[in-house]
Design brief:
By secondary structure, the protein is mostly helical. The protein folds into 3 domains: about 55 residues; about 120 residues; about 80 residues, Recoverin, domain 1, CATH 1.10.238. Helices cover about 75% and strands about 0% of the residues. It is built from 17 helices and 2 strands. Strands 1-2 form a two-stranded antiparallel ribbon. Helix 1 runs antiparallel to helix 2. It is elongated. InterPro entries: EF-hand-dom_pair (IPR011992), EF_Hand_1_Ca_BS (IPR018247), EF_hand_dom (IPR002048), Sig_transdc_His_kin_Hpt_dom (IPR008207). GO terms for molecular function: calcium ion binding. Keywords: Calcium, Membrane, Phosphoprotein, Signal, Transmembrane, Transmembrane helix.
Amino acid sequence: ALTCFWMWLDLVLLLIGTGDAIKRLTTSKYAVINPTTMRIARIGRMLRTVTILKSQPSFSALFLMTKSIQASAHALLWSLVLIFFAMTCTGMLINQGLYSYFLDTTKSLAERREVFDYFGTYSRMFITMFEFTLGNWAPPSRLLMNNVSEWWGLFVVVYRCMFCFSIVNVTAAVFMAETNRVASGDDEVMVMRKERLKKANAEKLNVLFQELDLSGDGCLTFDEFEHLLTDSVMRAFLSTMDLEVQDLHALFRLLDDGDGKVQLNEFVQGMHTLRGQAKHVDLLALMNMVQGMDQKLESVEKRLRR
C-alpha cells in the first residue's frame, strides 16, 4: 500500500486541504500557504477518474496513454541522461573554442557580447545547445559564422548530422520500442486489448451471420451455410479473422447443437473458438480423450480374450 501513487496523492491533498482550513480559520502569520495554490492542487484528484473511466470504451485510448507514460519512465530517464550528456560535452567544447575570441580585444565588443549571450556561461550554452539539438538551430549557427568564423557552420552541420540524425533518432526509436514493450506487457492493457479484439470479431461475425441468413429467421440451415464455400468475398472476410473454411459439413456439425440449425450465439461462439491455430488446451484435451479411448479399447480387448 505504501507504494500506491494514489494513496500518496490523497495524503498530499489532505495535508494541503488542512493547511487551507487553517488559513481560513486563523489570521496567524505562520499560515503562509497560498490558498489559490492549494485549490489548484485539488485538481490533481481528477487524475483518479482515469482509473474509473478505463472500463468505458470511449476512454480506452486515454487509459492506454496513461499506462504508456507510466511504462516509459525508465526509458525516458536514460534517454534524457544520454541527450543531456551529449549536449553538455558538445557545448563545453564550443565554449572552450570561443574562449580566445572572448578575450580578443581586436574584435568588436558588441559582437563578442552577442556571442557571449549564447555561449558565455553554462546556462546560456545549454539553452543554445538545446536549440541546436531540438529547436531552431539556424540563428545561433549564423551568429557564429558571421561574428567568429564560417568554419563554425561546418561544425554545426557535422553536429546536426552525427548527433541529431543518429543519436536523437535512435534514442527516440529505442524509447518508443521500450515503451510499447512494457505497455503491451501490462496486465490491464492486455485484458483491454483482448476484450476490444473479441468485441470487434463478434461484430464482424454478426454481420457475416446476417449476410448468410437469407430467410431472415435468425437461424442458418446447411443450404444457407453453403454460401461460405461459393462466395469468395465471404471466404476472404473469414480469412481476415484467421478462419479457414475447408469442410463445410464438419464445420456445420461443430456449430450445430443437434437441431439442424445454427443460432446467432452458436455461430459467434463457435467461430470464435475455431479462430487461428489449435491451442495447447485443445491439444491437451484431445490427448486426454485419446488416452481414455485407448484405455477403453484395452479393457475391451482383455474381455474378448477371456
